[in-house]
Amino acid sequence: MSEFNGLDVGLGNLYRLSAAKTRSISAENFTGAKGQGGMATEGTGAGPARDLGQGWKVSPSVMIPAGEVFTMAEIDGPGAIQHIWLTCAPECWRHLIVRMYWDGESEPSVETPLGDFFCNGWCERSNVNSLPVAVNPAGGMNSYWVMPFRRKALITVENRMPGEVVLYYQIDYTLTSVPEDAAYFHAQWRRSNPLRYKDVHVLLDGVRGKGHYVGTYLAWQVNNSGWWGEGEIKFYMDGDREFPTICGTGTEDYFGGAWNFEQPRGEYATYSTAYLGFHQLIKPDGLYRSQQRFGMYRWHVLDPIRFETDLRVSIQALGWRSGGRYLPLQDDIASVSFWYQSEPHAPHPPLPDNDGLEVI
Predict the structure, then answer these.
(1) Domain check: are 107 and 201 in the same one?
(2) What pTM value is reported for the model?
(3) For position 80, which CATH number holds?
(4) Rounded CA gap, 243 and 234, in Å?
């Protein structure tokens, strides 16, 4: 039997022994070092633990001051991050920026608001029951994307809120050999607010290198009445210019639904499955909350979209107008694209300021 490095763990190989080392970083062990968890003598839990002392939940979380960047994890490789859990107040989710850097790179491979990374872009929790992302009551956010690195992994979170933020987190990883053909995990956030008339929302552009696209999350606010999901998603790859290689047939179709997500008649039906979800529906309240908002995801885990040299991804926003004609919509669309690729990668477009990020 060939050597098993413990990186590709699943039910089919859980029985196999491995020389991989399991480690975990949290506010109770900032470095993940062996035998050094729960040693804190001061921290956010020092008050409640004052009668018990060291080893009794003295440092369960961190306080991140306004404007500061906190290092969640800095790990020497080789190895792979296998699970991330965290929680914080929902009002922070658009203004905490998560960045991930692999092998000493100066530009992050992952740069996205925290909530959007976990399919919660509206600063209002919606549970997610999928394979790579799970969000559970009452705000426990989990990522199971495997993130290999060869020399170093660095994960930071920037606090763009006007005040300090309490963050609970745990990052579980393995120290092990990394296969030669292992690509690096990437994620990028973009927003069109509002989408220009007869334009398309670009999820991803400028990707150079070899890799595969593995997931889409959309936070979509509809600014017209009527159905909004006739638009097609398109994947331009490996030299495609005017026309893409992959073209979808409608927004709800891409996310695994059909016929306006409508069931029973006259109502949206939300769902959250292993690879597909229309998991969030925020309805108007008849007063100041005037627009419908949705959250949806599509994981290309069993059907990754592979590219050799370049990739561009876009989606149309289409409704209906008189005479049975399509209506190009001017909606508020934010997205996160998830993919793996070889390095180096093209820099992400700069994130907007707080006004550009804000859920209004």
Answers:
(1) no
(2) 0.97
(3) 2.60.120.1390
(4) 9
